[in-house]
Amino acid sequence: MSETNLKTLIIDALEDVKGQDIVCLDVSGLSDVMDFMVVAGGGSSTQVKALANNVIEKCKHAGFQPLGVEGMDTGEWVLVDVGDIVVHIMVSAARSFYELEKLWSMRPEDMKKSKEAFFADETLRSEDETRSQGTPSSEQD
To answer: pTM for the whole thing?
Structure first.
């Protein structure tokens, strides 16, 4: 089974159990340990566990033994490692907090640009605050 077919199988398995906001990211240029990351949401920890179990079962049935599964004890965030594809299934609060899609969609050069923009904004804000405070007392004499 090709990587494309495995992605389709995983996404179908998530859709079968009503996974929410399923996103597949190509992270091959950002990571040496995986090529794709699939992120999906569940309405409760019970649903997150059910989603993960369905992905695991469908992968096994297709001949792919997951390399690792983490988080099934609490079900807040379950990670299923299927080799070149890693699946993250999270309850809404965890997904909103960690924003994996945002984190993994930024390339290092984008992060550098964001950092430069942040510091440029902070410098402008600092200059504005200095101006709004008036002339320093040493210049008033």
So the answer is: 0.71
Q: At what angle do helices 45-61 and 3-16 cross, to 10 degrees?
A: 140
Q: Report d(CA 61, CA 96) in Å as an integer.
A: 32
Q: Are 128 and 51 in contact (CB under 8 A)?
A: no
Domain boundary assignment for the chain: 3-98, 107-134
CATH architecture of 3-98: 2-Layer Sandwich (3.30)
What's the pLDDT tens digit per position in 7-36? 999 999 999 999 999 988 887 776 777 778
Please report how many Cα atoms fall inside a 13 Å half-sphere around the Cα of residue 118, on the Cβ side.
Answer: 6
CA torsion, ordered 31, 37, 41, 44, to nearest 10 deg: -70
Spatial neighbors of 97 by CB under 8 A, at least 6 apart, are: none
